Amino acid sequence: MTTLQQHRDSLTHILRGIEREGLRIDRDGALATTPHSALLGSALTHPNITTDYSEALIELITGTHSSVDDLLEELTDVHRFATRQFPSESIWMQSMPGHLPADNQIPIATYGTSNSGMLRHVYRRGLAERYGRTMQCIAGLHYNFSLPESLWQLLDIEGANETERQSVGYMGLIRNFTRYNWLLMYLFGASPAVPRSFLGDRPNPLRELDHDTLYLPYATSLRMSDLGYQNDAQSGLKMCYNDLSTFLRKMYHAVTQPWPEYQALGTHRDGQWIQLNTNVLQIENEYYSTIRAKRTTARGERPITALMERGIEYVEIRCLDIDPFSPIGISNATCHFMDAFLLFCAVHDSRLFPYDGFCEESQANFTDVVNRGRDPSLRLTSNGEDISIPDWGNQLLDQIALYAKELDIAFSTTQYSAAIQEQRHKLDDVSATPSARILQELRDSGLSFADYTQLQSQRLSDELRFGELSAETEQKMRASVKQSLEDQAAIEASDNESFDEYVERYMAALKRPE
């Protein structure tokens, strides 16, 4: 902390970015059947507007920003521009989807005829085979965060060179994040309910809230529970966060080790690709975790190779639910809290995990909070000792508040400390949590989850659509749309090998970690 106080100017060079997913729905609340519009640009090459799993699952992306205010201004502008391009549709304002068509009727995203576009599409075909399309319609918000090199250099971190010290520091951040990510699920989890149709005939522990809505009474985030993006192959992965080299070796094993059920499927059906390979993970991005170590990759470069050769550049936080009360999926206070929380995770002492780098205690705490985090009888485990959520949460907020204060001074604001205080209120009063508020609004309105969210989504999408967008910003965005379409056409024209050859070359580009 003394180091931060002496070098507060470094804090102003922290960078953050957001990727927000959201299903497009029609005016009846059904999944939109329209393709990703050319008015939005190319989903393959546009820097701000793309699709995730489905053609109907839009993803809105910001650049990196040195202030929260600038970040949210861009995110809002991208939302406003995008919603104007589909005036008869809305963005679904929940992480858990509403009523979906039959699984095989959910459209998989397409990215044109280029080999790189087909790689994305076939990867998603593989996800459909492995997890089902319905599960792929769950949406989230990713918060990307990086500390400046100058700050890593100031911290007492051992390493052979600057790149290694930075990677060691980020791995420490990841370990602390893993220890304390249960707090994010309590404070920001906002998916305690789902439509009955979402689970179909699958056995589940949910209760009936109304004729069309299932829920868990104390759940904070069903999205992050076993009802979400899980299967047997992934559940057996025990990644190591003690050091980058061991993590990469385990990831390499996961993307090269065959899985019997996927081998039985094969890679082709009726002459068409159905998955990229038959391994535990097709590619690195299939690994589902609450946080990822990231490095910007060149076209065709594998993430493992980029991390191995150039180290960790930033982290991607993947466990945040869509904030259903915000039209852009996240609030100003949440962003300020995330900065302070992640700075705390980076600077606070981060001892190594036992058991080959996997912490069973932290995983158990996370699972308990997503399933019953508002249960007053719930006790978590900290270093082998039982502790209540309010007690441990307030202890953590006391520490995070110190970093919030430093950020306030660096940015000449009070928003960071105010964000910490807002979270204390949730620890004092469980009814103030987003998950509790959602359930209360469902009860008060007498509406099902699907009907309530449909109305909320139309209202908030219209709020965005009719919000102010400067002529200069709109002009830049239209230029970006045009440029992305030209870029896609150029990529398609430059292909000089078959897709089979491209896939073979892409897989061969994977380097074995040392």
From TrEMBL:
Transmembrane segments: none annotated. Pathway: Sulfur metabolism; glutathione biosynthesis; glutathione from L-cysteine and L-glutamate: step 1/2. Keywords: ATP-binding, Glutathione biosynthesis, Ligase, Nucleotide-binding. It catalyses: L-cysteine + L-glutamate + ATP = gamma-L-glutamyl-L-cysteine + ADP + phosphate + H(+). Its EC number is 6.3.2.2. It comes from the Bacteria. GO terms for cellular component: cytosol. Pfam families: Glu_cys_ligase. Residues 5-366 form the Glutamate--cysteine ligase domain. InterPro entries: Gln_synth/guanido_kin_cat_dom, Glu_cys_ligase, Glut_cys_ligase. GO terms for molecular function: ATP binding; glutamate-cysteine ligase activity; metal ion binding. Belongs to the glutamate--cysteine ligase type 1 family. Type 1 subfamily. This is Glutamate--cysteine ligase. The lineage of its organism: Bacteria, Pseudomonadati, Pseudomonadota, Betaproteobacteria, Burkholderiales.
